[in-house]
Amino acid sequence: MTHYLEFEKPLAEIEGKAEELRALARSNEEMDVEKEAAALDKKAADMLKDLYKGLTPWRKCQVARHPDRPHCKDYIEALFTEYTPLAGDRNFADDHAVMGGLARFGDQPVVVIGQEKGHDTKSRIERNFGMARPEGYRKAIRLMDLADRFGLPVIALVDTPGAYPGKGAEERGQSEAIAQSTAKCLKLKVPMISVIIGEGGSGGAVAFASSNKLAMLEHSVYSVISPEGCASILWKDAEKMREAAEALRLTAQDLQKLGVIDQIIPEPLGGAQRDREATIAAVGKAIEAMLAPLQKKKPETILKDRRKKFLEMGSKGLAA
Q1: Cα–Cα dist 207/58, whole Å
Q2: Domain count, the chain
Q3: How many CA atoms lie within 13 A of 88 on its CB side?
Q4: Which domain holds residue 12?
Q5: Would you say 70 and 34 are in contact if contact means Cβ atoms under 8 Å apart?
Q6: Are 225 and 238 in contact (CB under 8 A)?
Q7: More confident: 26 or 77
């Protein structure tokens, strides 16, 4: 069943009518409705093109959160072979919001980590909706340590509304764990590539995205805070999220201009959820293209280039 976003409701009506016509034809073989259905299909295609031609930042937030977008688990299953998950932080517990382990990307052994939101009620609760606790970030640090020790590139898939803000997480050192994970990204002497596949929210995303190369899917978002959270703080009204989304400059297009990200990965018309296989393939090609030149560099150069990148970040936007 197709899940339509709020601004896609007119499209839902047209596509629904086309499906109803075809369902009637299946129940009555004498009916010929293909011409009418094809006309509705064309109308729907034109409307889809118009809707996605100039998405506002808030609508991009909605698309980035679409429940049918491919998630971390989908990318790992499709793009990596010999995936061997590693669990636990060797300190407190295993956080299911963060998944990762050893794998092969093509012929290259790598360490892959990412945030997984889940795809149904049961898995979303198990994965805590992609909001990691301290043990999740410490698991990521453990995996990055392993990558550094054995000279394996790190590939991170970012998709989180932010780190989990609960009492238990704070008691176990949430902010310290996020800071340590971010610092570990910056200290790696192996190539690190991050891709924001949905939401990149707050420090919970930065802890996985402080990499040599950072790419975003076309309709993903990346910001220091969610639009709702920003609106609650600045206007004391979460309903001002549209204005907040505009002000935050959280779209891939804005962030590329600022020099925060290195590449935008195009999505199929209508978003990643409309063609999951094509989206996953595009992400795979982007990772391959970003990884190849990094593998030719010496560890000291990789570290130096990453440091330089973050020191210069934002200068493009300031100069403009």
Answers
A1: 24
A2: 2
A3: 4
A4: 7-53
A5: no
A6: no
A7: 77
Q: What is the full DSSP assignment across 120-162?
A: SHHHHHHTGGG---HHHHHHHHHHHHHHHHHT--EEEEEEES-
Q: Percent of the chain scored above 90 by pLDDT?
A: 84
Residues β-bridged to residue 100? 113
* pTM score, whole prediction: 0.91
pLDDT score, position 128 = 94
Q: Measured between alpha carbons, how far is 314 from 249 in angstroms, rounded to an integer?
A: 12
Among 246, 283, 250, CA closest to 266:
283
Q: Token pair of 34, please?
A: 């293909």
Tokens 């919970």 identify what position?
204
> Which residue do the tokens 């780190």 mark?
163
- Token duo for residue 117: 């939101």
Q: What is the DSSP string of 204-249?
A: HHHHHH-SSEEEEETT-EEESS-HHHHHHHHTS-GGGHHHHHHHHT
Per-residue pLDDT of 273-319, as tens digits, reads: 999 999 999 999 999 999 999 999 999 999 999 999 998 886 655 54
Angle at Cα 60 formed by Cα 100 and Cα 115, nearest 5°? 10
Q: How many residues make up the chain in this entry? A: 320
Q: Is 199 within 8 Å of 291 (Cβ atoms)?
A: no
Q: 24 with 135, same domain? A: no
How confident is the model over 168-188, as pLDDT tens digits?
999 999 999 999 999 999 999
- Whether residue 279 lies inside any domain: the answer is yes
Q: Is the pLDDT of residue 241 over 80?
A: yes
Please answer whether residues 189 and 148 qualify as being in contact, where contact means their C-beta atoms are separated by less than 8 angstroms: yes
Contact 56, 264 (CB under 8 A): no
The residue type of 166 is G
* 105 found inside a domain: yes
The reply to whether 2 falls in a domain is no
Residues 129-159 have pLDDT tens digits of 999 999 999 999 999 999 999 999 999 999 9
